[in-house]
């Protein structure tokens, strides 16, 4: 892949992301990726860019509810890895681990099946937007509970003005452990 192709992919993705002011509450500008997903070339560009950031020898790709699922599943297939969903409470049958965290506009809890990932597995986390780092931080906590190794985090869009990498550093994730296709602010 050349820088030219990556640049064209990123331009396409940028052109398809829609800003929705005052959603889900006043003062928040929501980054809507549904137009990217609805466009076959845009969706393919996102998946290709996420695959290009993946380290070697990934065993499992984890995607968080709900838009992280959409991106993580095709990345897992392309890498020949398993896919594991991280869900909100009450959505997974059976025994789960849970982690709570703060969002830029509220609080949330995520869960994963206790047997979803074998101890020692190499895990790639995929999500749509990295805002405060709360969702990824909670997912990192779940991966630790599973006894697996979080080797990389890849996101479609990073809201740098919210300083998410500071929060991720508190979870042991360094600058090189996280990549984003696009960065705002």
Largest sheet features: 5 strands, parallel
Q: Which architecture of the domain at 56-184 would the CATH scheme give at its second level?
A: 3-Layer(aba) Sandwich
The residue fraction in helices comes out at 25-40%
Secondary structure class reads alpha/beta
**Amino-to-carboxy terminus distance:** 27 Å
Query: How much of the residues is beta strand, in percent?
Result: 25-35%
H/E element string?
A: HEEHHEHEEEEHEHE
CATH topology of the domain at 56-184: Rossmann fold
Unreliable spans: none
Shape: globular
Radius of gyration (Å): 16 Å
Total strand segments: 9
Query: What is the CATH domain class of the domain at 56-184?
Result: Alpha Beta
Count of helical regions: 6
The spatial strand order of the largest sheet comes to 4-3-7-8-9
Mean pLDDT: 94
Describe this structure in words.
- The protein has a domain at 56-184: Rossmann fold (3-Layer(aba) Sandwich), CATH 3.40.50.
- The protein has 185 residues and is an alpha/beta fold.
- The protein is 35% helix and 33% strand.
- The strands form three sheets. A five-stranded parallel β-sheet has the order 4-3-7-8-9, with helices on both faces. The chain has a two-stranded antiparallel ribbon with strand order 1-2. Strands 5-6 form a two-stranded antiparallel sheet.
- It contains six helices and nine strands, in the order αββααβαββββαβαβ.
- Helix 3 (40-52) crosses helix 4.
List the helices and strands and how they pair.
Elements: H1 3-16, E1 18-21, E2 29-32, H2 34-38, H3 40-52, E3 60-64, H4 67-79, E4 82-86, E5 96-103, E6 106-113, E7 122-130, H5 134-146, E8 149-159, H6 164-169, E9 178-184
Parallel strand pairs: 3-4, 3-7, 7-8, 8-9
Antiparallel strand pairs: 1-2, 5-6
